Q: What sequence folds into this?
């Protein structure tokens, strides 16, 4: 029997659901998620949820595909994959994901970024507009990115290596002067057992040819949209349990292997 960490349940109002329920009963200001970041770090690279099921529950989000096959970007109700081998491609509804989080994005707040911000300034801005109490926020930034540094991970073969080993062979790309969109989330520390605490952002260019997990960028002029999220519907694939609090990786361990933020 999986029990919820009370701090997590309080911080995110987590409800465990079956994968067929991810798209049921549309709810505003909620995120849906399959599996946990701790399970992903523990080599659970194959999930039971289809991209179609994720898209039924959210039109903006991120994650990866089965086999830890590249970076997943969900924007405007479409799922895109940035494979390490390239090129960026549209993901079909029957493909499966071992880790994804998405929301039916609603704009609660708009912030115009008039002149370019470096990455640290962007994170400060996101922090200023983060929820003060519980919950998390979903983030969308559209505009000009003078510099973008993204990465992707290679599809893994069984027996699966630890995430840190897979990430050690990641591919990184540097781009300049791209128009595009950043999608992502900011989760509170109490969510560390299921999510990457802090910011987790993915990028995709307007022409859908360049994408990945965002390591660093400069941005502006651009429009930042924020949704305050107060609920999480969490699906756990077979074999995945919520981690015991003593097994929860520290934020710094996660940053080391996940990068970005
Ligand atoms: Zn990522």
A:
């Amino acid at each position: 029997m999986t029990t919820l960490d009370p701090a997590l349940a309080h911080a995110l109002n987590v409800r465990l659901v079956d994968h067929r329920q991810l798209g049921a009963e549309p709810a505003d200001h909620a995120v849906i998620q399959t599996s946990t970041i701790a399970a992903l770090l523990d080599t659970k690279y194959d999930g039971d949820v289809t991209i179609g099921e994720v898209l039924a529950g959210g039109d903006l989000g991120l994650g990866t595909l089965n086999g830890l096959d590249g970076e997943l970007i969900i924007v405007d109700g479409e799922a895109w994959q940035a494979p390490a081998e390239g090129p960026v491609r549209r993901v079909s509804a029957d493909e499966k994901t071992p880790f994804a989080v998405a929301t039916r994005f609603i704009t609660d707040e708009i912030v115009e970024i008039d002149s370019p911000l470096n990455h640290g300034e962007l994170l400060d801005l996101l922090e200023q507009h983060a929820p003060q109490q519980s919950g998390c926020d979903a983030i969308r930034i559209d505009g000009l990115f003078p510099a973008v540094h993204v990465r992707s991970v290679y599809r893994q073969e069984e027996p699966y290596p630890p995430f840190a080993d897979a990430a050690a062979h990641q591919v990184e790309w540097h781009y300049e002067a791209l128009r595009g969109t950043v999608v992502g989330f900011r989760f509170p520390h109490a969510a560390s057992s299921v999510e990457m605490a802090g910011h987790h952002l993915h990028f995709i260019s307007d022409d859908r040819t360049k994408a990945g997990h965002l390591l660093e960028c400069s941005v502006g002029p651009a429009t930042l949209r924020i949704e305050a999220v107060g609920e999480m519907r969490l699906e756990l694939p077979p074999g995945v349990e919520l981690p015991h609090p003593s097994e929860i990786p520290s934020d710094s361990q996660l940053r080391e292997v996940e990068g970005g933020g």
About this structure: Residues 62, 71, 200, 202, 213 surround zinc ion (CB under 6 Å). The chain has a mean pLDDT of 91.
